[in-house]
Design goal:
With 384 residues, this protein is of the alpha/beta class. 35% of the residues lie in helices and 27% in strands. It has 14 helices and 16 strands. Strand 2, helix 2 and strand 3 form a beta-alpha-beta unit.
């Protein structure tokens, strides 16, 4: 067993974009020292002023070299930068014997470095935001409850759906406002989605063409699959005796989104990379999230299990938050979840190597209890 490098108590938070919120304030309460890195020291100081954290964290001008020079063994580096930059930051962390955390999906470039990080006694925390992050917590909790009710060895069939979306609290004609990199939104729609439907693997080359209505707590939304859902069958611990009828992780949008985005989809079908990049800028200018706008986050995860003798179990989690003047719903969900994970690095409760927001049902329940106490509200419904 490799010894965990003890946390030094110093946290380096890199980037202060739209997903940085009150989670950073929580870290300022628990960490011995917090440094916030931005493109310039002035921009970092402005961000701290905006968050009400002036004097509680140290502003720093970010370059990878400057970060490297500032790192000490046991420090924790939190990257809020775009996912392609994580691998370079992790390499610096491993060389400096510092822990690493982010809210993004674990990339191949990050995964390649995990064995070296683990051998050095370092934590690599990923997928610890909203989606991915809280969605994993909900799914692990539901699967554990369903297994307890139905039994692992029962030849049951099941449906698991997990849909998440950041949407305008007040619908506009476009049924969307851009609160993160618009090119990322468009490129996600250009990427094929793999999932399980009617018991078989299905691929949607154009995910929006698989859009369908989805009822959540009496309200109709539109949902479509994204990325690759299939590996999560194993990650969520679905019993081998259970046969999936549906297993899909995807994106949630306001009703009417598919129609409102018709012209965008035509561009996505025909446009090259340069045109799509230009379109992203045009859409961001036309439909920005301004200071006067309020965002809404909806995350709905459900599991329905049916046994061969008529036994059945259903459970669902719903998170439905609207942002306020001081903080967006997205910033609250992402930053508080990530900060919770960082605090678990600081207290030594995460093991060396790769950690996601949840690897087990027990840890999921712990994180959910802690998030609920910190104002990330959600509801659980169970029928059996």
């Amino acid at each position: 067993m490799v010894d965990l490098v003890p946390a030094s108590g110093t946290v380096h938070w890199i980037g202060t974009g739209l997903s940085t919120g009150s989670g950073l304030a929580k870290l300022c309460e628990s960490a011995g020292r917090v440094r916030v890195w931005h493109r310039t020291e002035e921009r970092a100081a402005e961000a701290l002023d905006r968050l009400g954290l002036a004097g509680r964290a140290e502003p720093r001008a970010y370059t990878l070299d400057r970060l490297t020079a500032a790192l000490a063994p046991g420090d924790v580096v939190v990257s809020m930068l775009p996912a392609p930059e994580h691998a370079g930051i992790l390499a610096v962390c491993v060389a400096s014997r510092a822990h690493f955390a982010c809210s993004s999906y674990v990339s191949d470039a990050v995964l390649e470095q995990v064995p070296e990080a683990a051998a050095a006694g370092l934590v690599v925390l990923t997928e610890a935001g909203l989606d991915p992050g809280i969605d994993h917590l909900f799914a692990h909790s539901l699967v554990a409850r369903g297994r307890e009710a139905i039994g692992d060895g029962t030849a049951a069939s099941y449906r698991l759906t997990s849909y998440c979306g950041g949407i305008p609290a007040v619908p506009n004609d476009f049924r969307y406002r851009f609160s993160w990199a618009p090119l990322g939104v468009l490129n996600a729609l250009r990427s094929p989605a793999r999932y399980l439907r009617d018991g078989a693997e299905t691929t949607a080359a154009r995910p929006w063409e698989a859009t369908r209505p989805h009822l959540v707590d009496g309200e109709t939304f539109e949902v479509y699959p994204n990325r690759d859902s299939v590996p999560f069958v194993e990650q969520y611990g679905m019993p081998p005796a259970w046969k999936p009828q549906t297993f899909v992780r995807g994106t949630l949008r306001l009703e009417g989104w598919l129609e409102a985005w018709g012209a965008v989809f035509e561009e996505l079908k025909a446009g090259d990379d340069a045109r799509i990049a230009a379109l992203a800028q045009e859409l961001a200018a036309a439909y920005p999230t301004t200071d006067a706008d309020r965002d809404r986050v909806v995350l709905a995860v459900s599991l329905d299990v049916a046994g061969p003798s008529g036994q059945a179990w259903s459970g669902s989690y719903l998170l439905d938050l609207t942002g306020g003047e001081e903080e967006s719903a997205m910033a609250r969900c992402v930053s508080r979840t990530l900060a919770l994970g960082v605090r678990h690095i600081l207290d030594g409760s995460l093991p060396p190597g790769l950690n996601r927001a949840a690897e087990t049902a027990a840890r999921s329940e712990q994180w959910l209890r802690e998030l609920a106490l910190e104002g990330v509200d959600f509801t659980l419904r169970v029928d059996s």
